[in-house]
Amino acid sequence: MTGFPQLDAFRGGPGLVRLVGHRGARGVMPENTMEGFAFTLLAGVSLLEFDVVLTRDGVPVVTHNHHLDGAATRDAAGNWLMGQGPRVAELTLNELHGYDVGGVDVRSSYGRQFCDQVLLDGVRVPCLGDLLDLGHDPRFADLHFLLELKSDPALRDDARAREAFVAAIVAKVRDRGMAGRTILHSFDWHLLDVCRRAAPEMPTSCLSQMPETVDALCAGGLSGFVSQDCSLPRMVADAGGQLWCPNVEDVTPELVAEARRLDLIVLAWTVNETGDIDRMIEAGVDGIVTDYPGRAQHRLRLRGARW
After folding, report:
1. Domain for residue 307, yes or no?
2. Within a domain: residue 61?
3. Is residue 103 part of a domain?
4. Is position 63 within any domain?
5. Which of 79, 201, 244, 248 has its CA 20 to 30 Å from the CA of residue 209?
6. CATH number for the domain including 41?
7. Residue 200 in contact with residue 179, Cβ under 8 Å?
8. 43 exposure class (CB count in 10 Å sphere: 0-12, 13-18, 19+)
9. What is the pLDDT of residues 115-152, one digit of tens each?
């Protein structure tokens, strides 16, 4: 399949730079929460980026890491977890919902990065199905999903487990009727091969960050794509991706132009500082994945651009 209508929601153009809420709006709202996603949508940003893993009982849930982050998680008594929390894959959904993810501990190094986040009580890790259901709300008819599959290093060589992981996510997206609004997104380009086989109706987005991406590609058997004269856009195209999602520090106008020649959509992450927002606009990216959608909206409006 070559036609992916959902790509149009992420494609920019003259005076048009798409905004994607990174984990909702992590700069001001608890990340990867229904409260954060609702805030982002009501602010007029209809593209959401988020992360998905599986619980022990096989439920796809929206959270960034394989372990709960102690700096962003409280126990049933309201105490912040110390250090790394429990592994999500070792918790049932019911056990996972015993933890509160409604903010950050501003005493931690992570919390100091996002000290403008509101602090809410009683916030739970959402199920993927609950987030997808927002697409049925008439207010959010333009909602599209940039769904990051969090590859588990412990299962990298377990083909059956990786296929089951993808199958569970794809089944949930299809069950909710959101395949036509979903892009599958990962740093693990091999896992995206599994996605393409399991869900040929959904395009794929290749995340990258240098030099880690090239190191991972070489270690994972994609070294044939890596050479001095082979750029990341070319590697993405050769790997079968429709979107290239590079780290903001790796974006240049020349690479964006090359990606365009390869018919790739370019979404830069994580674009938070005003100078970086301006630089991405000038580089010609299709979209900006940001923790601060409001900040990006203001910069785009001042430059006469839409999102």
Report:
1. no
2. yes
3. yes
4. yes
5. 201
6. 3.20.20.190
7. no
8. middle
9. 999 999 999 999 999 999 999 999 999 999 999 999 99
